[in-house]
Amino acid sequence: MEKKDIRSIKYEALTEIVKGYGEKAFRANQLYDWIHVKLVESFEEMGNISKDLKSKLSDEYMIYPVKKVTMQESKIDGTRKYLFSLHDDQLVESVFMRYSHGNSVCVSSQVGCRMGCKFCASTIDGLSRNLTAGEILGQVYAIQRDTGERVSNIVIMGSGEPFDNFDNVTDFLDLISHEKGLNISGRNITVSTCGIVPKIYEFADMEFAATLAISLHASNDEKRKEIMPIANSYSIDEIINACKYFFDKTGRRLTFEYSLIVGVNDKDEDAKELSDILSGLNCHVNLIPVNPIKERSFESPSKEGALRFKNKLEKNHINVTIRREMGRDIDGACGQLRRRFL
Questions:
Q1: Which entry of 23, 93, 161, 257 is annotated as an active-site residue?
Q2: pLDDT at 126 over 90
Q3: Active site includes 222?
Q4: From the candidates 106, 113, 194, 334, which is the catalytic residue?
Q5: How many CB atoms lie within 10 A of CB 243?
Q6: Is 334 considered catalytic here?
Q7: CA-CA distance, 257 to 329, in Å (whole number)?
Q8: Residue 44 burial (C-beta neighbours within 10 Å; 0-12, 13-18, 19+)
């Protein structure tokens, strides 16, 4: 029988496990500190834990490895793209980015993806499996160990659809923000979804202080269906209503991601429709010049084209920025490095 992933176990549950072994509750503090602050990769590294307790734990539990296979560092901006292997030899990608406001890590939530968005390399081979909360954490911890620098911002925007792995992703949020762990504020965490409407409502009801980012990428349902199969299940109107509910529950400003694709969604009428959709919402639009992938013919706009679209939105009183392009020279698009390695 496969051992349980101890990184995925929340503090309160870990305390009950330790007490079940006849140990004092403070041992859970020590264990949690070793796993989530000192970031050890084995029970053997835990200096103040008795051999007896280590033996009991190792019979049932394991710190599942997230091992660096390769890393590419951008000569342009220092962004690092990591490829990690998991215990079953599956591969996932993560990205480390330095900003003036602190270090950000973009993590994957699944091995592959089944959402089928046509501009994304992650989904080309479909979904292999979900990641555990501990495997999502393991990406952050491995990057902290490798860089020797603290991570202060998390974006769940790598391979996979976070709300298609809802329970593990929300457990990850609890663990990464726990005061006895890395204690990263929910306000410094962004969860991105292509728009699984029932899960937006469920996430809103949790009232977790994270930013919700919606991968919209089109200004009407017909055009969205051409590039995002999820649009056949949930309309833009349904997504906007769920977003309004999220804002009412949390008070958190929403982000809408919009990948600009030449000739597909970058026309003046697209900007007008997008402005109408978002009018009155407390939100921000993140324009993303699409990162070309060899399997698709999509073309990224020129700087002038992106600025023109941005200006159209701003004239309609929409808060908008063009995302700084990070790692263009290192297989920057989600899923590219894994796919090339495979």
A1: 93
A2: yes
A3: no
A4: 334
A5: 24
A6: yes
A7: 22
A8: exposed
